[in-house]
Description:
By secondary structure, the chain is α/β, with parallel strands linked by helices. It has two domains: 123 residues, NAD(P)-binding Rossmann-like Domain (Rossmann fold, 3-Layer(aba) Sandwich), CATH 3.40.50.720; 173 residues, Dihydrodipicolinate Reductase, domain 2 (2-Layer Sandwich). It has ten helices and 13 strands. It has a seven-stranded mixed beta sheet with strand order 8-9-7-10-13-12-11. A six-stranded parallel beta sheet has the order 2-1-3-4-6-5, sandwiched between helices. It is globular and about 65 Å long. Pathway: Amino-acid biosynthesis; L-arginine biosynthesis; N(2)-acetyl-L-ornithine from L-glutamate: step 3/4.
Amino acid sequence: MRSPVVFIDGDQGTTGLQIHQRLRNRTDLELLTLAADERKDSRRRTEAINACDIAILCLPDAAAREAVETIVNPAVRLIDASSAHRTQPDWTYGFPEMTPGQAERIANARRVTNPGCYPTGAIGLLHPLLQAGLIPDNYPISIHAVSGYSGRGRAGVEEYEGPDAANAPSYQVYGLELAHKHAPEIQLHAGLAQRPIFMPAYGAFRQGIVLTVPLALRLLAPGVDGATLHACLARHYAGATHVRVMPLEESRVLKHLDPQVLNGTNDMCLSVFSNIEHEHVLLSAVFDNLGKGASGAAVQNLNLMLMQQ
Length: 309
């Protein structure tokens, strides 16, 4: 029996390179790559994508849509790491832990859209709490997230590691027009009735994310507190391999969140912090933007899909 053929279209970008590194020593699959002089040859790319069993698209949105249109082989299955199809109803959302049965849906899907890095943390925190009715769907959600500069792709790496790296800012908030492309994805898959306020930033470190969501208990149902929210998250992710909910006793003594602590893994740690006096709660997610936020998630989805190949 032959090994399944996996083609990475765009394996020279930050996400594609990491996926290639995670797969290159696998013996249970055949990795199809194009030579440097063929990567921009549309004919060769079309041949490759139609010759594989599963294609992973690591392309800009427009190029990802074009790649999908070139597929004429009905047996080809797709994982799209771009944001082109994340809100499309005919694509399966590639967050296996999001809801019961999602891993099975991914395993059987023909078209899987990989979650965005920031949405992974936001949806991971919010979806279970909204589904349980602990946060109303019309709550005015605001999200703040700081990512390593690799989240910008090659441009970010060049700015911080290139010849002018000494001039790179130590911290920069962006998306000030409040129209970031991740907001609709978060709204849809978290189950929000209205668009959240999303405030992203980059720090002077290569990879890793800290994402936080503040909540005012006075806007939640009577009796809902930090412990209630934590218990819901703990139940939802009980037994999950790649998502951990920090025990309350650990979060009570924690003094800071390190965005880099899970770098190199496909894991995400969720936490709940409370101030009873002020009736404030802070939800947080820490993970690698190139791990659970991109390449690691793509490989996790690939592994699920290979089970049904």
